[in-house]
Amino acid sequence: MSTNTGDIEKQSAGIAAETTVPNADVGLDSASGSAAGSTDINNATKSTRDARIFRRFLAILNYTPRRCRYDPEKQFKFNMALNLLFAFAATFTVANLYYNHPILNILAEDFNVTYERVSIIPNVMQAGYASGLFFITPLGDLFRRRALTLGLILFTTLIWLGCTLTKDFTVFAALSFVVGLTTVTPQLMLPLVGEKYEL
After folding, report:
1. How many domains are there within the chain?
2. Does residue 45 sit in the same domain as residue 81?
């Protein structure tokens, strides 16, 4: 009788242990699941915030002042002031390709390279310009030309800052190529005039 009672107690203890172990596993699973869930929520929140910032940046870049928006009732005339503005903008933008020509000897001294080596800078910029004509100018048919033009001007300005701050000739040559690549805004400005304004 006592033996049967001891066996029953052992069996009930074993059953209790079996039932408590899965509960512990479930607790661990739920804890790891909640940690993974909070990580997923944090990642989703971060990606949503990044997307919101990117959309805000695009909205600012795509903004068109009310007086420059198309209005069939009131056509915006391309007057002499705008003509001069576009002329100066195109001139100074294209001049990016030629600013380095008169100072090649100074660049050679500053970077401590030979004249032969520094002479690749104009070639690199012209190669970048040709690449920009081939790869970036067609984007004017896919994106808003005003936003694309402003974005390219802003990006080119930042690259010029990099050119002025670098001390390495190879980096300077690479940045010069990028400057040439993005110096295609005059090719975007002319279609912009034809698209927006009545001449």
Report:
1. 2
2. no
Q: Could you tell me if 192 and 146 are in contact, meaning their C-beta atoms sit under 8 angstroms apart?
A: yes
Scanning the chain, the segments in alpha helix (DSSP H) are: 2-62, 80-94, 104-111, 115-118, 120-135, 145-165, 169-182, 185-196
Indicate whether 115 and 22 sit together in one domain: no
Tokens in use for 105? 């000897």
As a whole number of angstroms, the distance between CA 138 and CA 191 comes to: 11
Task: State the residue range of the domain holding 143.
Answer: 76-196
Residue 70 resides in a domain? no
- Give residue 125's pLDDT: 95
Is the entire prediction scored with pTM above 0.85? no
Which residues lie below 8 Å from residue 32, measured CB to CB, with a gap of 6+?
A: none
End-to-end, the C-alpha distance of the chain in Å comes to: 112
Q: Residue holding tokens 């690199």?
A: 124
Provide mean pLDDT across the span 156-163. Answer: 94
